[in-house]
Amino acid sequence: MNFLRNPHTTFSKHDLIERLWSFDETPSDAVIKTHIKGLRHKLQTAGCHNDLISTIYGFGYKLNVDFC
Asked: How far apart are CA 17 and CA 9, in angstroms?
């Protein structure tokens, strides 16, 4: 996962689409939001009480390095 390899980097939705999907038809920004929401839910279910992924309004997402 890009977040773990680059914890201080903010990834735009476009960056995430380019790095994670290899389809001819690229998904919309809404797909990224849905996947981030699902990932946050899985992390919470696994016992992480803090939000590990920060939303950078108008740009994208980054790993919250102060998570635990």
From this structure: 16
- The pTM of this model reads 0.75
| Distances, alpha carbon 26 to alpha carbons 20, 21, 23, 30, in Å | 10, 7, 6, 11
Residue 9: φ, ψ to 5°: -100, 135
Q: How far apart are the first and last CA of the chain?
A: 19
Report the alpha-carbon distance of residue 23 to residue 68 in Å, rounded. Answer: 35
Pull the structure tokens for residue 10: 């903010």
* 2-60 confidence digits (pLDDT tens): 777 888 889 888 888 887 777 677 777 788 889 889 988 998 898 887 788 889 998 88
SS3 state of residue 55 = strand
